Amino acid sequence: MSCLFCKIIEGKIPSTAVFQDELGYAFADLHPQAPVHVLIVPRKHIASLDEAGKEQSGLLGHLLWAAAEIARKKNLTNGYRIVVNTGQEGGQTVDHLHLHLLGGRAMTWPPG
Ligand code: AMP
Ligand code: ZN
Q: I need a labelling partner for 37 at 20 to 30 A (CA). Which of 30, 63, 81, 89 fits?
C-alpha cells in the first residue's frame, strides 16, 4: 500500500504525534495553515469520507471526538475548525481519510 498516511501511521515516515489510540492517530500537519493544524486519521485505510460505509459511522464519530479532545488539550477555548476535504473539488490531496483541526486564529467564511 503506497499510501502516505498509512506509512506515517506505521512509522515509516516521521511525524509529530499529537494523539493516538487503537482507532486513530493524530499528527502535526507538515504545512500548517494556522498556529494549530493537526491531522486526525483512522488507523484503518479509508480513502475518503465518500468511501466510509455505515459500518464505519462509529469510527467517524470517534475521530470527531478525538479532534475535540485535542482542541481541549491545546486550549483552543476561543474556537476552532474541523475540515474534511473530500474528493477533487473538495481539495483532497492525500487519499486517506483525514480531519484537519485548525485553530489559534480567527477563521474566515466561506472557505476558498
Ligand atoms: P488534504 O489537502 O485535505 O488532502 O490534506 C493533506 C494534508 O496533508 C495537507 O495539509 C498537507 O500539508 C499534509 N501533509 C502532506 N504530507 C505530510 C507529511 N509528510 N506530514 C504531515 N502532513 C503532511
Ligand atoms: Zn492509507
A: 89
Query: What pLDDT does 19 receive?
Result: 97
Ligand 1 geometric centre to CA of 94 (Å)? 7
Give the chain's residues under pLDDT 70: 1
Q: What angle (nearest 5°) sits at the alpha carbon of residue 98, between those of residues 79 and 30?
A: 80
- Determine the pLDDT at residue 112: 85
d(CA 53, CA 61): 13
Neighbours of ion ligand 2 (CB under 5 A): 3, 5-6, 45, 96
- Assess if residue 58 is contained within a domain: yes
Q: Are 20 and 62 in contact (CB under 8 A)?
A: no
Question: In this structure, what is the dihedral angle of CA atoms 59, 38, 15, 50, given to the nearest 10 degrees?
Answer: 40
- CA quadruple 69, 29, 50, 76: dihedral positive or negative? positive
Would residue 9 count as lying in a domain?
Answer: yes
Write out the residue range of the structural domain in which residue 37 sits.
4-103
In a domain, 112, yes or no: no
